[in-house]
Design goal:
The protein has helices at 2-25, 33-40, 47-55, 59-77, 82-88, 94-105, 109-114, 155-167, 233-248; strands spanning 133-137, 140-148, 177-181, 194-200, 212-216, 219-227, 257-261, 274-280. By secondary structure, the chain is α+β, with helices and mostly antiparallel strands. It is globular and about 60 Å long.
Length: 283
């Protein structure tokens, strides 16, 4: 009986992951109860309860969070009018969008657009540098889902990973969420960028189809602790590679750069997100 219940929960996790993929791919499309429950093959009378128990948030929360995340990217990387971005995010007025965006990101969209990254020039024109710490990393095994394309869109893979881990009860103990980033966005076409969303697991953890077990070995790393929305991470990489590394007398190791997410965008506004960017080093 216990084995049957376990298999049922794993199957529920797989079906909820299908819904999460559909939502991420169709933020402007059909997200009705009938459509989503049909994708998961759940009765519409029970779909919302099952989804919330597996995903850890309601469908409305997922849609709102992903639309606001897309809106933040458009504010930071496009010249679209705020009115257009508000409509795409599902808000009937700029005022409603401003309230929702402010609640999620800690500042109104206009202010976010003006200073979406916290790195501001000083009065003498120099950049404000965040401190780099060289330390020992303890190593970790990760269950990963691959992502191909714009790094800012990897969140959907982390949502799938959260559903997969939740169905297995993995979050009863603290586990690291880590993103692996293999390519330089300034050198590789966006469609070919390779990354992976990872969840800390035991090395013998059975994985589902499409997942890979990755091992980041113990060793020395150079890290920057960044506070703020994920759209500001590009500047962290610029400082780490262009400013710090050439002056450090360090050599990079044979592992990809990775990001450790120290809190959850479901729990805190984007302005309070903490991300540790880690560059593996030799020696």
């Amino acid at each position: 009986m216990l084995q049957t219940k376990h298999k049922t929960r794993l199957d529920y996790g797989r079906r909820v992951a299908l819904v999460i993929d559909h939502i991420a791919d169709n933020l402007d499309g059909d997200l009705s109860l009938e459509r989503l429950s049909g994708i998961a093959c759940f009765s519409p009378y029970h779909f919302h309860r099952i989804y919330r128990s597996i995903a850890g948030e309601t469908v409305a929360d997922t849609v709102r969070r992903l639309r606001l995340h897309r809106a933040a990217g458009e504010l930071a990387r496009s010249a679209y009018p705020i009115e257009r971005i508000a409509r795409r995010a599902g808000y009937g007025s700029v005022e409603a969008f401003t309230r929702a965006f402010g609640n999620g990101h800690g500042e109104p969209p206009g202010a976010f657009r003006a200073r979406f990254t916290p790195f501001r020039p000083t009065e003498n024109g120099d950049d404000i540098m965040l401190p780099v710490t060289v330390k020992d990393f303890d190593g970790v095994h990760l269950a990963t889902y691959p992502h191909r394309g714009n790094y800012h869109d990897i969140g959907r893979c982390f949502d799938r990973l959260a559903a997969w881990g939740g169905a297995r009860g993995l979050f009863s103990t603290p586990r690291r969420m880590i993103g692996l980033y293999y390519d330089d966005p300034g050198s590789v076409p966006e469609a070919e960028l390779r990354s992976e969303a990872g969840l800390e697991v035991e090395p013998d953890m059975p994985l589902s189809d499409g997942m890979t077990l990755r091992h980041i070995p113990a060793g020395r790393i150079a890290t920057i602790l960044y506070k703020g929305p994920y759209t500001g991470l590009d500047e962290v990489y610029r400082q780490l590679y262009r400013e710090w590394l050439p002056q450090s007398c360090e050599e990079v190791g044979d592992q990809p750069v990775f990001e450790t997410y120290l809190n959850n965008p479901r729990d805190v506004p984007a302005s309070e997100l903490l991300t540790e960017v880690s560059l593996p080093l030799k020696g």
